[in-house]
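Re: beginner question about structure tokens

> Can someone show what the tokenized structure looks like for a real chain? I only ever see the sequence side.

Sure, here's an example I had lying around. Input first:
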Amino acid sequence: MKKLKKILSASMSALLIILSITGCGVSGKADKLVLAVRSGTYAEVIKQCIPGFEAEYGIRCEVVEFSEEDLHHEILRDSLNIRSTYDIIMADSSWTAELFAEDALADLSSLGYIFDSDVIPATTDICVQGGKTYLVPYYGNVTVMLYNRTVAESLGYGEDNLATLDDIYEFCQAASASGNGGFVARGDTPNNMVVDFLPVLRAFGGWVVNREYKPTVDTPQFKAALEYYLELLDTGTMMPKEELISSIENGSQAVAVGWPGWYSNSFENSDYCAFPGMVSEDGENFNSNIYGIWTLGIPSNCRYKESALDLLRYLTDPDVQKSTVDAGGVPCRYSCLTDPELLAANPHLEVICAALENGIYRPSTSKWPEFYTILGQRMTQIICGELTIDNGLMLAQEELEALMK
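And the corresponding structure tokens:
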């Protein structure tokens, strides 16, 4: 694909020379910009900001929404075009290795974009390569513990005594015994299966790869975490995202690994808090906050980079981002997450800020989709009883080592 891109790039250069000779060159200013974004809350907060940009800059904007999987494929497909269909793209942090490998992103540093001190530093790690900035953290998704507050209070549980994995298991057992479900997992796809499990794995001190990106699946930490996860699942069930969210709100299930983007201010019974980073009170406290941050960037084959940069700066402006919080926005800026007025109406921002300061990105590798597919499928077989934990993890380790060679 990279070779094809070089051919296309050469063709594009030739075309630009022809255009300049004939007087038909492209202006750096646009009269319309097109954004490719993830559907749902992520798109809604951007659409809320667009009228202000249009009024200030006199540029019309079109927001094109995609599901997560479709957006992933669309961005990579569009990177092969001579001219990009889009001027701003939204990208999940786990796609960055692929985007870098395909030279799909414009160098924002060369366009004059720099991070200010208001942006939470850890959230920018995935956005920079070789000292150059290619992406900007926009929506600070990070794992939290979503739970039914009414069920918890009726059983004597709250944020203060849900501080360890042992506490969560006891709560889920109590909820199940009282006629409610306990833990509900999002296991409808291999990716969801793996990502749902990662906070538990981190609390046991494990991870899916080491620093050399060699798989670390068939390990004592991973096995212990999966054994615990199976016990959690015994208290509840597995559901797709929308059903999971509804089950927590209506109390048919008590606890789930969630994301701030799922939470609505209209919820009456749901709440969320930081996901525990330790198994027991006397255990080690690990960082269990998994980033699912959505970033914004400009395609390398964008026609109107100057205007696109104006829009990117506008969307990530502190005051503009503050205006999105009530609509479900989750900025990666201290000024937004610690603003007294916003905190009074949205106390969860304090939890999110602490989690974003100490989060961990999923492995940055172009093989991540293949990685989680293999691991998710083996985990599903273990959960369904088709494989023992030992055999399932051994097979997963062998397959992942072959993949990552």
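Each token stands for a local structural state, so reading them left to right follows the chain. The chain has 16 helices and twelve strands.
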